[in-house]
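Please review this one:
***
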Amino acid sequence: MKRIATISKLKPGTADKYIELHKNVWPGVVKAGHDAHMQNYSIYRFGDYLFSYYEYTGDDFDGDMARKAALDVSQEWQKATGEYREIMTGSQRYIELEEIWHENFDV
C-alpha cells in the first residue's frame, strides 16, 4: 500500500462553496477512485489550506492515476473544484508531501 498526502490552498472566500461541493461528491468521482484502487480518502482544512490523504492499494500507481485522470467525470470534477483552489507551484493546484515517518499502532 502507498500512502499519498497533498496540500493545496483555497482561493480566499471560496471555502463554503468548496465544502458544499464535497458534501455531494458525484457518484462517478467515487467510482473512479475505487476503480483506481484508492481508499480511505480524507480532506482536512486549516483556514484556506487543505490537507488530503488517501491510500493506494493497486500495483500500477502511474497507470491507474492516468486512467482516472483521463475520465470525463474526473476532468469535470477537477474543473469544478479547481475553481476554488489556487495554483500552488508551476501549474499544480496541489503539492504532494513527502512521508517522513509512519507507524502502524495496530500491531
